Amino acid sequence: MQAECCWTKEVITAGECQCISTDETDLYTSLERRFLAKCIECPLFVRDQARLTEEENAAAPILRILIAEITRNKSKLNTLVGFLDSKNLEIQFLHEIVSVLQTSLELDEVLSVALTAITAGKGFGMNRAFLLLTNKERTHLKGYLGVGPKNYQEAWEIWEEISKADLSLREMATQFHQTKLSAEKTKFHDILERLSFPMSDEGHILVRSLNERRAILVRDASHHPEVDPFLAETIGVDTFLILPLISRNRHIGVILADNFITRKPITPQDMSFMETLTFPVAFAIERASLYEHLQEDLEKLTAANAKLHEQQELIVRMEKLALLGKITSSIAHSIRNPLTVIGGFARSLLKNISEYDPKREPLENIVQKSKQLEDVLSEVLGYADSVFPAMAQWDVNRMAETIYQELSRKTVGSGITISLDLAPDLPMVYLDYRQIAYCIKKILSISLKAMQPAGEIYLGTRMANDCIVVEIRDTVCHPEREAHEAFLDSGMTGSEDDCDMELSFCRVILENYSKSFTVERCAGQGKRYLLELSLQKEESEHE
Protein backbone atom coordinates (compact mmCIF):
# COMPACT_ATOMS: atom_id res chain seq x y z
CA MET A 1 0.00 0.00 0.00
CA GLN A 2 1.25 3.44 -0.96
CA ALA A 3 0.87 5.68 2.14
CA GLU A 4 -0.56 9.16 1.68
CA CYS A 5 0.89 10.38 5.01
CA CYS A 6 4.62 10.73 5.65
CA TRP A 7 4.51 8.37 8.65
CA THR A 8 6.44 5.67 6.77
CA LYS A 9 9.40 7.93 5.92
CA GLU A 10 12.33 8.53 8.24
CA VAL A 11 13.21 11.87 6.63
CA ILE A 12 10.89 14.14 4.64
CA THR A 13 11.09 17.49 2.86
CA ALA A 14 9.15 20.66 3.57
CA GLY A 15 6.47 19.98 0.98
CA GLU A 16 5.64 16.44 2.11
CA CYS A 17 3.72 17.38 5.32
CA GLN A 18 1.30 20.28 5.55
CA CYS A 19 0.84 19.89 9.33
CA ILE A 20 4.38 21.02 10.16
CA SER A 21 4.75 24.79 10.66
CA THR A 22 7.81 26.83 9.73
CA ASP A 23 9.12 26.84 13.31
CA GLU A 24 8.98 23.04 13.59
CA THR A 25 11.55 22.13 10.93
CA ASP A 26 13.30 19.78 13.35
CA LEU A 27 10.40 17.32 12.83
CA TYR A 28 11.51 16.73 9.23
CA THR A 29 14.37 14.50 10.39
CA SER A 30 12.72 12.78 13.39
CA LEU A 31 10.07 10.18 12.51
CA GLU A 32 9.31 9.37 16.17
CA ARG A 33 8.61 12.95 17.22
CA ARG A 34 6.75 13.72 13.97
CA PHE A 35 4.54 10.68 14.36
CA LEU A 36 3.60 11.49 17.99
CA ALA A 37 3.13 15.21 17.46
CA LYS A 38 1.51 15.37 14.00
CA CYS A 39 0.74 12.09 12.27
CA ILE A 40 -1.77 10.75 14.83
CA GLU A 41 -4.10 13.68 14.18
CA CYS A 42 -3.33 13.99 10.43
CA PRO A 43 -6.31 13.24 8.04
CA LEU A 44 -3.95 11.49 5.62
CA PHE A 45 -2.80 9.13 8.35
CA VAL A 46 -6.41 8.38 9.28
CA ARG A 47 -7.10 7.40 5.65
CA ASP A 48 -3.94 5.24 5.57
CA GLN A 49 -5.10 3.50 8.72
CA ALA A 50 -8.57 2.89 7.21
CA ARG A 51 -7.06 1.36 4.06
CA LEU A 52 -4.91 -0.95 6.16
CA THR A 53 -8.05 -2.14 7.89
CA GLU A 54 -9.88 -2.65 4.57
CA GLU A 55 -6.94 -4.59 3.19
CA GLU A 56 -6.98 -6.69 6.37
CA ASN A 57 -3.37 -5.88 7.02
CA ALA A 58 -2.09 -7.75 10.09
CA ALA A 59 -0.61 -4.54 11.53
CA ALA A 60 -3.93 -2.67 11.45
CA PRO A 61 -5.37 -3.97 14.82
CA ILE A 62 -2.08 -3.41 16.60
CA LEU A 63 -1.79 0.06 15.13
CA ARG A 64 -5.30 0.93 16.35
CA ILE A 65 -4.42 -0.22 19.89
CA LEU A 66 -1.20 1.80 19.88
CA ILE A 67 -2.94 4.90 18.56
CA ALA A 68 -5.67 4.63 21.22
CA GLU A 69 -3.10 4.20 24.01
CA ILE A 70 -1.03 7.14 22.78
CA THR A 71 -4.17 9.30 22.65
CA ARG A 72 -5.10 8.37 26.22
CA ASN A 73 -1.59 9.08 27.49
CA LYS A 74 -1.55 12.45 25.74
CA SER A 75 -4.85 13.34 27.40
CA LYS A 76 -3.50 12.32 30.83
CA LEU A 77 -0.32 14.27 30.18
CA ASN A 78 -2.26 17.40 29.29
CA THR A 79 -4.32 17.02 32.45
CA LEU A 80 -1.15 16.57 34.52
CA VAL A 81 0.45 19.61 32.92
CA GLY A 82 -2.60 21.67 33.80
CA PHE A 83 -2.48 20.37 37.38
CA LEU A 84 1.23 21.16 37.69
CA ASP A 85 0.66 24.64 36.30
CA SER A 86 -1.99 25.32 38.93
CA LYS A 87 0.24 23.93 41.69
CA ASN A 88 3.10 26.06 40.42
CA LEU A 89 0.90 29.15 40.75
CA GLU A 90 -0.04 28.05 44.28
CA ILE A 91 3.62 27.57 45.20
CA GLN A 92 4.54 30.98 43.79
CA PHE A 93 1.69 32.55 45.75
CA LEU A 94 2.71 30.82 48.99
CA HIS A 95 6.33 31.77 48.41
CA GLU A 96 5.33 35.41 48.08
CA ILE A 97 3.31 35.26 51.29
CA VAL A 98 6.02 33.47 53.26
CA SER A 99 8.73 35.84 52.04
CA VAL A 100 6.67 38.79 53.28
CA LEU A 101 5.91 37.10 56.60
CA GLN A 102 9.56 36.30 57.18
CA THR A 103 10.50 39.98 57.02
CA SER A 104 7.65 41.19 59.25
CA LEU A 105 8.21 41.67 62.97
CA GLU A 106 5.23 43.87 63.83
CA LEU A 107 2.13 41.90 64.81
CA ASP A 108 -0.38 44.08 62.94
CA GLU A 109 1.78 43.93 59.82
CA VAL A 110 1.84 40.13 59.97
CA LEU A 111 -1.93 40.00 60.41
CA SER A 112 -2.43 42.41 57.50
CA VAL A 113 -0.43 40.13 55.22
CA ALA A 114 -2.21 36.96 56.36
CA LEU A 115 -5.78 38.25 56.15
CA THR A 116 -5.13 40.12 52.90
CA ALA A 117 -3.87 36.87 51.39
CA ILE A 118 -7.07 35.11 52.43
CA THR A 119 -9.49 37.77 51.20
CA ALA A 120 -7.72 39.20 48.12
CA GLY A 121 -8.70 38.03 44.65
CA LYS A 122 -5.02 37.46 43.87
CA GLY A 123 -4.90 35.26 46.98
CA PHE A 124 -7.48 32.78 48.19
CA GLY A 125 -10.36 35.09 47.25
CA MET A 126 -12.54 34.61 50.33
CA ASN A 127 -15.01 37.42 51.15
CA ARG A 128 -14.28 37.74 54.88
CA ALA A 129 -11.82 36.52 57.46
CA PHE A 130 -11.86 36.75 61.26
CA LEU A 131 -8.82 36.14 63.43
CA LEU A 132 -9.20 34.83 66.98
CA LEU A 133 -6.07 34.71 69.18
CA THR A 134 -5.49 32.95 72.48
CA ASN A 135 -4.75 35.21 75.44
CA LYS A 136 -1.42 35.14 77.30
CA GLU A 137 -2.69 32.56 79.77
CA ARG A 138 -3.98 30.34 76.92
CA THR A 139 -7.38 30.20 78.63
CA HIS A 140 -9.58 31.91 76.02
CA LEU A 141 -9.95 32.42 72.29
CA LYS A 142 -10.82 36.04 71.62
CA GLY A 143 -11.66 37.94 68.44
CA TYR A 144 -8.80 40.23 67.42
CA LEU A 145 -9.28 41.34 63.82
CA GLY A 146 -11.83 41.09 61.01
CA VAL A 147 -11.26 41.85 57.31
CA GLY A 148 -13.72 42.12 54.44
CA PRO A 149 -16.89 43.97 53.37
CA LYS A 150 -20.03 44.18 55.47
CA ASN A 151 -22.44 44.38 52.52
CA TYR A 152 -22.58 44.01 48.75
CA GLN A 153 -22.17 47.75 48.07
CA GLU A 154 -18.97 47.92 50.06
CA ALA A 155 -17.72 44.73 48.40
CA TRP A 156 -18.33 46.19 44.94
CA GLU A 157 -16.41 49.35 45.87
CA ILE A 158 -13.50 47.32 47.20
CA TRP A 159 -13.32 45.09 44.11
CA GLU A 160 -13.49 48.11 41.80
CA GLU A 161 -10.72 49.86 43.71
CA ILE A 162 -8.49 46.77 43.56
CA SER A 163 -9.07 46.28 39.81
CA LYS A 164 -8.08 49.88 39.10
CA ALA A 165 -4.99 49.88 41.32
CA ASP A 166 -3.69 46.48 40.08
CA LEU A 167 -1.46 46.02 43.13
CA SER A 168 0.60 42.98 44.03
CA LEU A 169 -0.23 40.99 47.16
CA ARG A 170 2.64 42.63 49.07
CA GLU A 171 1.51 46.10 48.00
CA MET A 172 -2.10 45.39 48.97
CA ALA A 173 -1.01 44.15 52.41
CA THR A 174 1.18 47.23 52.93
CA GLN A 175 -1.63 49.58 51.89
CA PHE A 176 -4.10 47.76 54.14
CA HIS A 177 -1.74 47.97 57.11
CA GLN A 178 -1.07 51.66 56.63
CA THR A 179 -4.56 52.95 55.78
CA LYS A 180 -7.30 50.46 56.67
CA LEU A 181 -6.29 48.31 59.62
CA SER A 182 -7.73 50.47 62.39
CA ALA A 183 -10.92 51.04 60.38
CA GLU A 184 -11.40 47.28 59.92
CA LYS A 185 -11.02 46.69 63.65
CA THR A 186 -13.68 49.31 64.33
CA LYS A 187 -16.01 48.02 61.60
CA PHE A 188 -16.15 44.49 63.00
CA HIS A 189 -15.94 45.53 66.66
CA ASP A 190 -19.41 44.18 67.50
CA ILE A 191 -18.65 40.75 66.00
CA LEU A 192 -15.15 40.54 67.49
CA GLU A 193 -16.50 41.36 70.96
CA ARG A 194 -18.83 38.37 70.77
CA LEU A 195 -16.17 35.98 69.48
CA SER A 196 -14.81 34.87 72.85
CA PHE A 197 -14.70 31.20 73.84
CA PRO A 198 -13.01 29.35 76.75
CA MET A 199 -10.29 26.88 75.84
CA SER A 200 -11.60 24.59 78.55
CA ASP A 201 -14.68 23.88 76.39
CA GLU A 202 -13.02 21.07 74.44
CA GLY A 203 -16.27 20.19 72.70
CA HIS A 204 -16.52 23.58 71.00
CA ILE A 205 -15.72 23.27 67.31
CA LEU A 206 -13.09 26.04 67.39
CA VAL A 207 -11.28 24.51 70.36
CA ARG A 208 -11.57 21.06 68.81
CA SER A 209 -9.98 22.34 65.60
CA LEU A 210 -7.01 23.58 67.63
CA ASN A 211 -6.68 20.45 69.74
CA GLU A 212 -6.99 18.13 66.75
CA ARG A 213 -4.66 20.35 64.68
CA ARG A 214 -6.86 20.18 61.58
CA ALA A 215 -8.92 22.51 59.42
CA ILE A 216 -12.72 22.04 59.47
CA LEU A 217 -15.12 22.96 56.65
CA VAL A 218 -18.54 23.69 58.15
CA ARG A 219 -21.66 23.42 55.98
CA ASP A 220 -25.24 24.23 57.08
CA ALA A 221 -23.96 25.70 60.32
CA SER A 222 -27.41 26.59 61.65
CA HIS A 223 -28.37 22.89 61.71
CA HIS A 224 -24.90 21.42 62.33
CA PRO A 225 -24.94 19.36 65.56
CA GLU A 226 -21.32 20.29 66.44
CA VAL A 227 -21.55 24.02 65.76
CA ASP A 228 -22.39 26.41 68.58
CA PRO A 229 -25.61 28.25 67.54
CA PHE A 230 -24.17 31.43 69.07
CA LEU A 231 -21.15 31.17 66.73
CA ALA A 232 -23.31 30.59 63.64
CA GLU A 233 -25.56 33.51 64.58
CA THR A 234 -22.60 35.82 65.24
CA ILE A 235 -20.87 35.39 61.87
CA GLY A 236 -24.18 35.10 59.98
CA VAL A 237 -23.29 32.42 57.40
CA ASP A 238 -24.07 28.72 57.01
CA THR A 239 -20.77 27.77 55.36
CA PHE A 240 -17.38 28.77 56.73
CA LEU A 241 -13.88 27.42 57.11
CA ILE A 242 -11.96 27.01 60.39
CA LEU A 243 -8.15 27.16 60.11
CA PRO A 244 -6.17 26.39 63.31
CA LEU A 245 -2.94 28.34 63.92
CA ILE A 246 -0.36 26.22 65.76
CA SER A 247 3.35 26.90 66.14
CA ARG A 248 5.66 24.45 67.92
CA ASN A 249 2.74 22.83 69.76
CA ARG A 250 1.56 26.25 70.98
CA HIS A 251 -2.04 27.20 70.28
CA ILE A 252 -1.88 30.64 68.64
CA GLY A 253 -5.50 30.99 67.48
CA VAL A 254 -7.90 30.26 64.60
CA ILE A 255 -8.98 31.96 61.39
CA LEU A 256 -12.64 31.89 60.29
CA ALA A 257 -13.09 32.47 56.54
CA ASP A 258 -16.36 32.66 54.58
CA ASN A 259 -18.02 33.96 51.40
CA PHE A 260 -20.54 36.20 53.12
CA ILE A 261 -21.22 38.30 49.99
CA THR A 262 -20.95 36.00 46.97
CA ARG A 263 -22.15 32.83 48.73
CA LYS A 264 -19.67 30.94 46.59
CA PRO A 265 -19.23 27.34 47.83
CA ILE A 266 -16.03 26.50 49.69
CA THR A 267 -14.53 23.28 48.34
CA PRO A 268 -12.23 20.77 50.03
CA GLN A 269 -9.57 21.92 47.54
CA ASP A 270 -9.93 25.48 48.85
CA MET A 271 -9.54 24.18 52.40
CA SER A 272 -6.46 22.14 51.49
CA PHE A 273 -4.87 25.10 49.73
CA MET A 274 -5.49 27.54 52.59
CA GLU A 275 -4.36 25.00 55.17
CA THR A 276 -0.81 25.29 53.81
CA LEU A 277 -0.81 28.91 54.93
CA THR A 278 -1.55 28.24 58.58
CA PHE A 279 1.93 27.20 59.77
CA PRO A 280 3.90 30.19 58.39
CA VAL A 281 1.17 32.55 59.62
CA ALA A 282 1.15 30.97 63.10
CA PHE A 283 4.93 31.09 63.29
CA ALA A 284 5.01 34.73 62.12
CA ILE A 285 2.34 35.72 64.67
CA GLU A 286 4.22 34.03 67.50
CA ARG A 287 7.49 35.65 66.45
CA ALA A 288 5.87 39.08 66.18
CA SER A 289 4.23 38.64 69.60
CA LEU A 290 7.55 37.63 71.14
CA TYR A 291 9.19 40.62 69.48
CA GLU A 292 6.60 42.95 71.03
CA HIS A 293 7.17 41.39 74.46
CA LEU A 294 10.92 41.74 73.99
CA GLN A 295 10.50 45.39 73.10
CA GLU A 296 8.51 45.96 76.28
CA ASP A 297 11.08 44.07 78.34
CA LEU A 298 13.87 46.01 76.63
CA GLU A 299 12.32 49.32 77.65
CA LYS A 300 12.05 48.14 81.24
CA LEU A 301 15.61 46.81 81.21
CA THR A 302 16.90 50.03 79.68
CA ALA A 303 15.43 52.02 82.53
CA ALA A 304 16.75 49.50 85.08
CA ASN A 305 20.19 49.49 83.44
CA ALA A 306 20.35 53.27 83.64
CA LYS A 307 19.87 53.07 87.40
CA LEU A 308 22.26 50.13 87.63
CA HIS A 309 24.87 52.04 85.63
CA GLU A 310 24.71 54.89 88.11
CA GLN A 311 25.17 52.47 90.98
CA GLN A 312 28.01 50.70 89.18
CA GLU A 313 29.81 53.98 88.61
CA LEU A 314 29.53 54.67 92.31
CA ILE A 315 30.85 51.18 93.10
CA VAL A 316 33.75 51.64 90.65
CA ARG A 317 34.74 54.92 92.30
CA MET A 318 34.60 53.25 95.69
CA GLU A 319 36.63 50.29 94.40
CA LYS A 320 39.32 52.64 93.11
CA LEU A 321 39.44 54.39 96.45
CA ALA A 322 39.62 51.03 98.21
CA LEU A 323 42.52 49.88 96.02
CA LEU A 324 44.28 53.22 96.49
CA GLY A 325 43.85 52.87 100.24
CA LYS A 326 45.25 49.34 100.17
CA ILE A 327 48.29 50.36 98.14
CA THR A 328 48.85 53.46 100.26
CA SER A 329 48.57 51.48 103.47
CA SER A 330 51.02 48.85 102.22
CA ILE A 331 53.58 51.45 101.15
CA ALA A 332 53.15 53.49 104.30
CA HIS A 333 53.68 50.48 106.58
CA SER A 334 56.75 49.48 104.55
CA ILE A 335 58.26 52.97 105.04
CA ARG A 336 57.24 53.49 108.69
CA ASN A 337 59.30 50.60 110.13
CA PRO A 338 62.71 51.64 108.73
CA LEU A 339 61.86 55.30 109.38
CA THR A 340 61.14 54.52 113.04
CA VAL A 341 64.50 52.74 113.30
CA ILE A 342 66.34 55.68 111.73
CA GLY A 343 64.66 58.28 113.94
CA GLY A 344 65.14 56.25 117.11
CA PHE A 345 68.82 55.63 116.38
CA ALA A 346 69.39 59.34 115.72
CA ARG A 347 67.73 60.29 119.02
CA SER A 348 69.84 57.79 120.97
CA LEU A 349 73.01 59.28 119.48
CA LEU A 350 71.96 62.81 120.41
CA LYS A 351 71.76 61.84 124.08
CA ASN A 352 75.49 61.00 124.17
CA ILE A 353 76.80 63.95 122.10
CA SER A 354 77.79 67.27 123.63
CA GLU A 355 76.17 70.50 122.57
CA TYR A 356 79.32 71.63 120.75
CA ASP A 357 79.97 68.40 118.86
CA PRO A 358 80.00 69.04 115.06
CA LYS A 359 77.91 65.84 114.54
CA ARG A 360 75.03 67.18 116.62
CA GLU A 361 73.56 69.42 113.89
CA PRO A 362 73.28 66.61 111.25
CA LEU A 363 71.70 64.27 113.83
CA GLU A 364 69.18 66.93 114.86
CA ASN A 365 68.34 67.40 111.18
CA ILE A 366 67.77 63.64 110.82
CA VAL A 367 65.49 63.56 113.85
CA GLN A 368 63.52 66.58 112.57
CA LYS A 369 63.04 65.13 109.07
CA SER A 370 62.10 61.73 110.53
CA LYS A 371 59.43 63.43 112.64
CA GLN A 372 58.08 65.23 109.57
CA LEU A 373 57.92 61.96 107.60
CA GLU A 374 56.19 60.18 110.50
CA ASP A 375 53.55 62.93 110.57
CA VAL A 376 53.01 62.54 106.80
CA LEU A 377 52.69 58.76 107.13
CA SER A 378 50.16 59.19 109.93
CA GLU A 379 48.07 61.41 107.67
CA VAL A 380 48.38 58.90 104.79
CA LEU A 381 47.40 55.94 106.96
CA GLY A 382 44.48 57.88 108.34
CA TYR A 383 43.30 58.56 104.78
CA ALA A 384 43.82 54.91 103.76
CA ASP A 385 41.81 53.69 106.74
CA SER A 386 39.00 56.06 105.82
CA VAL A 387 38.60 54.60 102.31
CA PHE A 388 38.64 50.94 103.42
CA PRO A 389 35.16 49.47 102.75
CA ALA A 390 33.14 48.15 105.64
CA MET A 391 32.20 44.50 106.06
CA ALA A 392 28.51 43.54 105.76
CA GLN A 393 26.13 40.66 104.93
CA TRP A 394 25.86 40.15 101.14
CA ASP A 395 24.12 37.84 98.68
CA VAL A 396 26.88 36.14 96.67
CA ASN A 397 24.48 35.13 93.88
CA ARG A 398 23.38 38.72 93.46
CA MET A 399 27.01 39.84 93.27
CA ALA A 400 27.81 37.16 90.66
CA GLU A 401 24.74 38.02 88.59
CA THR A 402 25.62 41.74 88.61
CA ILE A 403 29.16 40.96 87.41
CA TYR A 404 27.78 38.57 84.76
CA GLN A 405 25.36 41.16 83.37
CA GLU A 406 28.07 43.81 83.20
CA LEU A 407 30.50 41.55 81.30
CA SER A 408 27.78 40.10 79.03
CA ARG A 409 27.07 43.55 77.63
CA LYS A 410 30.76 43.98 76.81
CA THR A 411 30.98 40.64 74.97
CA VAL A 412 27.90 40.99 72.74
CA GLY A 413 28.85 39.97 69.19
CA SER A 414 32.46 39.15 70.18
CA GLY A 415 32.20 35.36 69.91
CA ILE A 416 32.92 34.98 73.62
CA THR A 417 30.35 33.05 75.67
CA ILE A 418 29.85 33.67 79.39
CA SER A 419 27.75 31.12 81.26
CA LEU A 420 26.27 31.70 84.72
CA ASP A 421 25.43 28.80 87.04
CA LEU A 422 24.07 29.88 90.42
CA ALA A 423 23.15 27.44 93.18
CA PRO A 424 19.69 28.27 94.59
CA ASP A 425 18.94 29.42 98.14
CA LEU A 426 22.49 30.31 99.18
CA PRO A 427 22.79 31.99 102.62
CA MET A 428 24.11 35.52 103.10
CA VAL A 429 27.86 35.88 103.63
CA TYR A 430 29.71 38.44 105.72
CA LEU A 431 32.22 39.96 103.28
CA ASP A 432 33.62 43.10 101.72
CA TYR A 433 31.44 43.38 98.60
CA ARG A 434 33.48 45.99 96.78
CA GLN A 435 36.85 44.35 97.18
CA ILE A 436 35.63 40.80 96.42
CA ALA A 437 33.64 41.97 93.39
CA TYR A 438 36.61 43.99 92.16
CA CYS A 439 38.91 40.96 92.29
CA ILE A 440 36.42 38.66 90.53
CA LYS A 441 35.92 41.22 87.75
CA LYS A 442 39.69 41.64 87.44
CA ILE A 443 40.12 37.88 86.90
CA LEU A 444 37.34 37.84 84.31
CA SER A 445 38.60 40.94 82.50
CA ILE A 446 42.07 39.45 82.11
CA SER A 447 40.51 36.28 80.65
CA LEU A 448 38.41 38.33 78.26
CA LYS A 449 41.43 40.25 76.98
CA ALA A 450 43.36 37.04 76.33
CA MET A 451 40.37 35.23 74.79
CA GLN A 452 40.44 36.39 71.17
CA PRO A 453 38.68 35.93 68.89
CA ALA A 454 36.39 33.49 70.78
CA GLY A 455 36.14 31.37 73.87
CA GLU A 456 34.08 30.38 76.89
CA ILE A 457 33.99 31.61 80.48
CA TYR A 458 32.13 29.93 83.35
CA LEU A 459 31.04 31.75 86.50
CA GLY A 460 29.24 29.68 89.14
CA THR A 461 28.43 29.36 92.81
CA ARG A 462 27.79 26.33 95.05
CA MET A 463 27.80 25.14 98.64
CA ALA A 464 30.69 22.98 99.85
CA ASN A 465 31.89 22.20 103.39
CA ASP A 466 29.94 25.04 105.07
CA CYS A 467 31.41 27.47 102.55
CA ILE A 468 30.13 29.17 99.45
CA VAL A 469 32.46 28.43 96.54
CA VAL A 470 32.78 30.90 93.69
CA GLU A 471 34.27 29.16 90.64
CA ILE A 472 35.65 30.78 87.48
CA ARG A 473 36.84 28.77 84.48
CA ASP A 474 38.14 29.99 81.14
CA THR A 475 39.37 28.41 77.90
CA VAL A 476 42.29 30.78 77.37
CA CYS A 477 45.41 29.10 76.01
CA HIS A 478 47.77 30.87 78.43
CA PRO A 479 51.46 31.30 77.55
CA GLU A 480 54.00 30.00 80.00
CA ARG A 481 54.40 33.37 81.65
CA GLU A 482 51.78 36.08 81.61
CA ALA A 483 49.58 38.22 83.85
CA HIS A 484 47.71 35.30 85.40
CA GLU A 485 50.94 34.03 86.96
CA ALA A 486 50.65 36.85 89.50
CA PHE A 487 47.98 34.76 91.21
CA LEU A 488 50.36 31.80 91.47
CA ASP A 489 53.18 33.79 93.08
CA SER A 490 53.16 34.12 96.84
CA GLY A 491 54.41 37.69 96.72
CA MET A 492 55.19 40.41 94.27
CA THR A 493 56.44 39.25 90.90
CA GLY A 494 59.03 41.92 90.48
CA SER A 495 57.36 42.97 87.27
CA GLU A 496 56.73 46.63 86.63
CA ASP A 497 53.58 45.82 84.67
CA ASP A 498 50.50 47.47 86.21
CA CYS A 499 48.38 44.41 85.50
CA ASP A 500 50.76 42.14 87.45
CA MET A 501 50.66 44.54 90.38
CA GLU A 502 46.85 44.70 90.36
CA LEU A 503 46.60 40.90 90.24
CA SER A 504 49.06 40.57 93.08
CA PHE A 505 46.97 42.88 95.22
CA CYS A 506 43.86 40.93 94.19
CA ARG A 507 45.49 37.76 95.49
CA VAL A 508 46.25 39.46 98.80
CA ILE A 509 42.68 40.72 99.08
CA LEU A 510 41.15 37.34 98.23
CA GLU A 511 43.38 35.51 100.68
CA ASN A 512 42.62 37.98 103.46
CA TYR A 513 38.86 38.09 102.96
CA SER A 514 38.15 34.43 102.17
CA LYS A 515 38.77 31.02 103.66
CA SER A 516 40.91 29.97 100.69
CA PHE A 517 41.77 31.03 97.16
CA THR A 518 43.35 28.64 94.66
CA VAL A 519 44.30 28.75 90.98
CA GLU A 520 44.50 25.52 88.95
CA ARG A 521 45.43 24.74 85.39
CA CYS A 522 42.67 22.86 83.57
CA ALA A 523 43.42 19.79 81.47
CA GLY A 524 44.22 20.91 77.94
CA GLN A 525 43.94 24.67 78.29
CA GLY A 526 42.56 27.36 80.54
CA LYS A 527 42.54 27.93 84.30
CA ARG A 528 40.15 27.44 87.17
CA TYR A 529 39.87 29.87 90.08
CA LEU A 530 38.22 28.69 93.32
CA LEU A 531 37.25 31.18 96.01
CA GLU A 532 35.83 29.80 99.29
CA LEU A 533 33.82 32.25 101.38
CA SER A 534 33.22 31.16 104.96
CA LEU A 535 29.75 31.46 106.44
CA GLN A 536 31.22 32.29 109.87
CA LYS A 537 31.45 36.01 110.56
CA GLU A 538 34.52 35.78 112.74
CA GLU A 539 36.48 33.89 110.11
CA SER A 540 35.89 36.39 107.35
CA GLU A 541 36.01 39.62 109.33
CA HIS A 542 39.31 41.47 109.19
CA GLU A 543 40.19 44.64 110.92
- Topology pattern, helix = H, strand = E: HHHHEEHHHHEHEHEEHHEHEEHEEHHEEH
**The CATH class of the largest domain:** Alpha Beta
Shape: elongated
Low-confidence stretches: 480-484, 489-498, 538-543
Q: Looking at this structure, what is the CATH superfamily of the largest domain?
A: GAF domain
Strand order of the largest sheet: 3-2-1-6-5-4
Count of beta strands: 13
The helix content, as a percent range, equals 40-55%
Mean pLDDT across all amino acids = 79
* Euclidean distance between termini CA atoms: 126 Å
- Supply the helix-strand structural class: alpha+beta
Please indicate the count of domains. Answer: 4
Cα-based radius of gyration, to the nearest Å: 44 Å
How many helices does DSSP assign? 17
User: How does CATH name the architecture of the largest domain?
Assistant: 2-Layer Sandwich
Which fold name corresponds to the CATH topology of the largest domain?
Beta-Lactamase
Percent of sequence in beta strands: 15-25%
Largest sheet, if any?
A: 6 strands, antiparallel
Descriptive overview:
This protein is an alpha+beta fold and 543 residues long. The chain folds into 4 domains: 6-93, no CATH class; 104-289, GAF domain (Beta-Lactamase); 300-387, Helix Hairpins, CATH 1.10.287; 392-540, 2-Layer Sandwich (Heat Shock Protein 90). Helices cover 55% and strands 15% of the residues. It has helices at residues 31-37, 43-54, 59-102, 107-119, 152-165, 169-179, 181-187, 189-194, 205-212, 229-235, 268-351, 360-387, 396-410, 433-450, 485-488, 498-512, 537-540, and strands spanning 128-134, 140-147, 196-198, 216-218, 240-247, 250-258, 392-394, 416-421, 429-431, 455-464, 467-474, 516-521, 527-534. The strands form 3 sheets. Strands 3-2-1-6-5-4 form a 6-stranded antiparallel beta sheet, sandwiched between helices. A 5-stranded mixed beta sheet has the order 8-10-11-13-12. A two-stranded antiparallel sheet has the order 7-9. Strand 12 and strand 13 form a beta hairpin. Helix 2 packs antiparallel against helix 3, helix 3 (59-102) packs parallel to helix 11 (268-351) and helix 4 crosses helix 6 (169-179). The protein is elongated and about 160 Å long. The chain starts with 30 loop residues before the first helix and ends with a helix. Residues 480-484, 489-498 and 538-543 have low confidence and may be disordered.
